[in-house]
User: Fold these one by one.
Assistant:
Number 1:
Amino acid sequence: MARIILEVPDELSEQLARVGERLPELLALSLQQPALSAHIYRYILDFLATGPTREEILAFGPSPDMSDRLKVLLSRNKAGELTPSEQQELDEYERIEHLIIMLKAGSLPYLSRA
């Protein structure tokens, strides 16, 4: 096992001392963050929870913030400048887009019966 020495502020040092032997686990979890923020999934789930009509499903799209971020990612991708984490983020947006397309096409009828 590797040993790492870090300099941290006193307040953080006290917090780290309280977690003790769980520190490696907590560090590993912090490095395994999802590609997209939880608010993006919440936006979609909140919409689905309203029991949208077919018309509302067809009109559903990304929020302005999501659209702006997607434009940046697509531009960086086209220029070949994506970081690995940005590539993961773009891949996740593509998976979500596929799900929404299936929903709009009626492939998920149990969600579009409203």
Number 2:
Amino acid sequence: MPKNDGPSALLVVDVQNDFCTGGALAVPDGEGVVPVVNRLMDRFERVILTQDWHPSEHLSFASAHGDTRPFDTVSMPYGPQTAWPDHCVAGSSGAAFHRDLRTEKAQAVIRKGWRREIDSYSAFFENDRKTPTGLAGLLRELQVARVVLCGLATDFCVAYSALDARRLGLEATVVLDGCRAIDLEGSLAAATAEMGQNGVNLVQSADL
């Protein structure tokens, strides 16, 4: 891909301390995406970061549901919801971007999950599948037709974002070596299959 990438944007999903080693919801080798992501940033004129940004009593947290344990499923008005350990609380060190991520390359940061009553995996919509984050409007203003995604985690926020990009009519490419997965009860295989079935390009960074 040439440096002057035309109507494309790099979407870097949730490369935050709580999703890296030692974090509250650590993705195995989560920080391993950082060198790949940093290299990818040099290939794009448009770089957008996303950031989980939860209030301290977010209803996706297991701690908000009595005896519920992390990774149990709870019922929310919009449907089943995985109950997560408390993570990425707004303003906390866990919510901060990994220290080695080149945040100065980004033109915008999309914060998601800041409404207490609803979680947000996708960079485009919250988990009710209709409340927008504002990213779609930003991409329209920038005349972006193609998004290239990387970050954490492959099987949740990256996959949901890629699928929503396709739903909105954008070309979507996921750079697999720039992602890491939680793989909760087969979630990685399921997400990979769904992305492939919906026209998401799955590549390695060397293929770009």
Number 3:
Amino acid sequence: MINYNPLWETMNNRKITTYALIKKHGIPSSTINSLKHNKNIMMYTLERLCSILNCTADEVVKFEDDKKKT
């Protein structure tokens, strides 16, 4: 399962808002919505986010095991 919680922490640390991603960097609001709902994004978008935030992919997304533990 995809989880973008690291993105929000990285953005907070870098003092970059979703508004700045949309208005200053041209990230579509639909992409922000996908990120907020842990939906898939294009690798190109991940690359752009990493470039904008000056970070690595693991500071944007983490993959979690979606198997339920019993």
Number 4:
Amino acid sequence: MSRAWTYGDNVNTDVLYPGRHLANIDPKYQAAHALEDLDPGFAKTVQAGDVVVGGKFFGCGSSREQAVTCLKYAGVPFVIAASFARIYYRNAINNGLPPLVSPEASAKIQSGDDVTVDLEAGLIRNRTRNETYRFEAFPEFLQRLLAAGGLIPYLRQQVLVKQ
């Protein structure tokens, strides 16, 4: 089961991962402080496979990558939103956390809904409500990059393959 955690519009990087924690690069530490200023119970109760759903302009604010990696290290496999701040969108791809743009899913998914995703088909399934929403599937090269775990792991694969 992939439980949904829903948040509204303009969820910024300061509430995704507070600036006071930026000095610590330990993945477990980052996961333990994910969303703590917006939803203090999130980090304590999120489970691997749970999904974060935002509204418009998700990830606005600073360019801190920790706003992506804290969710990834908490076990969130993808984020769904009506729209993303451009830098957050790119940071998510670079760090292997697929940012799925679906205004319909963002509007209809509610906290606690059971949600699954088919990245190749561009489909989000809300099993709780028996609904399916579309998002634009990633091009093949981005699918390979995401499958590798992000830009750095992808580049390592490419270098190792060519040696």
